[in-house]
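Researcher: We are triaging several targets before committing to wet-lab work. For this one, the compound of interest is zinc ion. I'm pasting the protein sequence and the ligand SMILES. What I need is the predicted three-dimensional arrangement of the protein with the ligand bound, expressed as structure tokens, so it can go straight into our comparison scripts without reformatting.
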Amino acid sequence: MLDIIQIPVLNDNYIYLIHDPVSTETAVVDPAVSEPVLDALASKEWQLTYIFNTHHHNDHVGANLELKQKTNCQIFGSEADRKRIPGIDVELKHGDQVKLGDQVAHVISTPGHTLGHIVYHFPDSHALFCGDTLFSMGCGRLFEGSPTQMWQSLQLLKDLPGKTDIYCAHEYTQANGKFALTLEPDNPQLQQRLAEVKQLRSASKSTIPSSLDQELATNPFLREHSPAIQQSLNMTENEAVKIFAKVRELKDRY
Ligand SMILES: [Zn+2]
């Protein structure tokens, strides 16, 4: 199993350190800034081997060059973003596998938030590092891709095992949950999760990771099949992509 450390930075970003205790290899996912990463590495006495980037936004790649210079690590990112990921060494595409010691991550292409967005799934540790594609009770804004692309990307993530831990890159859970409740006010799992989240946040605690099972039960961007959501939007179940697009549009204006 991997050791996973969550580092909160900036307003609401999470950086993750992933460490394989057998090989002692360590990766950082989406380093926005360098200092908290270097501090965490030092306190664990880990050496940085790799940077895994999910997409090119600055709050995900901001510390790439500094960390590479200071640790000599290798930088992995999307082939489609090769010109936008500072210091990229290894270009990845859908279906590629990345190794951290003996632990294998499957690379899944998830265009939508950006066109080159990729996520890293470690099946043996049931961990998904999904950047700004999937959030707890939400999903990333569509800056570059179409609703159809993002919907298809999310379908790929829905097919992962339910016990998969969802390590997303932002703490947006409470605001997402409030919006979700406007569409499904009577969903008991959503009510329960939101109550839990309120408690965690008022104690300044993280709500991440969630699990895929939890997201399937509460995340409106994964729930076009929900009769309550269809009713809220006055749409029918054979309009899945349209329902997704409408939920995204409503959230953008919420
Ligand atoms: Zn982003």
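Researcher: Any quick observations?
Model: Residues 9 and 15 are 7 Å apart (CA to CA).
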